[in-house]
Amino acid sequence: MKRVFLLIATNIAVLLVASLIMSILGVNPSTMSGLLVFAALIGFGGSFVSLKISKWMAKKTMGCEVITNPRDSDEKWLVETVARQAEQAGIKMPEVAVYHSPELNAFATGPSKNNSLVAVSTGLLHGMSRDEVEAVLAHEVSHVANGDMVTLTLIQGVVNTFVIFAARAIARAIDTFVSSNDEEGEGMGVFAYMAVVFVLDMILGILASTIVHYFSRIREYRADAGAAKLVGANKMIAALERLRQGPESNAMPAQMSALGINGKRSAAEFFMSHPPLEKRIEALRNQ
């Protein structure tokens, strides 16, 4: 419930701020240009707010324990390994954290290359060899060095803007058509219009998500290649093989599952945020 509350509160805050900005600017969302501005404010606003608070949100939703003073040899090794890799990648040292979960997973997030968080699950830390964990950490550091969080935020912002604008533009066209064929010229009515917008938001959102997933899969290949440069392709292949032998990732909430190294699987690849592990392994072997 805490995760749902945080997500809802964030979206409500974005809506309120966007409405306030539009009121100050005198933008009327009833015009097409006003609608486009409204869509961009909501679409990009929500994405950038999520990016800005991504570290805080990750810590809260996943229960991350940031390592400030290592409590044991494993934590000391984690911090030292990330520090070494960050220096190799030319980025500022990320915060390093551990979260309690039996699944083999890890993720990186943060608003910029020099303000990031790398976190690993206790299941991954204790269920993999150090060479494999080192490769996973290199994968996450590569995400940070590639600026993947910002890139995906921009893509998500464009997609959100398109969905918000298109859904309302189509709903208006339907309303105009109904009104022109209605003797009283009343159109669909407020509730019917809102219902149409809601359905279109859902349908267009699902279709648009395939675009985001496509770019997300590309960034996974790039992060695998980056990890291979940092620690060697054999270590990265061994880590992916270990993930392939384990169960599907289910512990992460939906809004964070794309961040993990071990993504959720699907029968249709274009609905997956991560390429199949077999394809990732093959790509490393062929590079």
How would you briefly describe this protein structure?
The protein has 287 residues and is of the alpha+beta class.
What do these coordinates show?
The chain is an alpha+beta fold. The chain is 67% helix and 7% strand. It has one domain: Metalloproteases ("zincins"), catalytic domain (Zincin-like), CATH 3.30.2010. Strands 1-2-4-3 form a 4-stranded mixed β-sheet, sandwiched between helices. The termini are far apart.
Fourth-level CATH superfamily: Metalloproteases ("zincins"), catalytic domain
Distance between the termini: 44 Å
Shape: elongated
Strand order of the largest sheet: 1-2-4-3
Average pLDDT, all residues: 83
What pattern of helices and strands is seen along the backbone? HHHEHEEEHHHHHH
What is the subunit organization of this protein? Answer: single chain
**Sequence stretches where pLDDT stays below 50 over 5 or more residues:** none
Number of strands: 4
Tell me the helix content: 55-70%
Taking all Cα atoms into account, the compactness measure Rg is 22 Å
Task: Report on the biggest sheet.
Answer: 4 strands, mixed
- Corresponding CATH architecture: 2-Layer Sandwich
The domain count comes to 1
Strand content: 5-15%
- Please count the helical segments: 10
Structural class: alpha+beta
> For this structure, what is the CATH class?
Alpha Beta
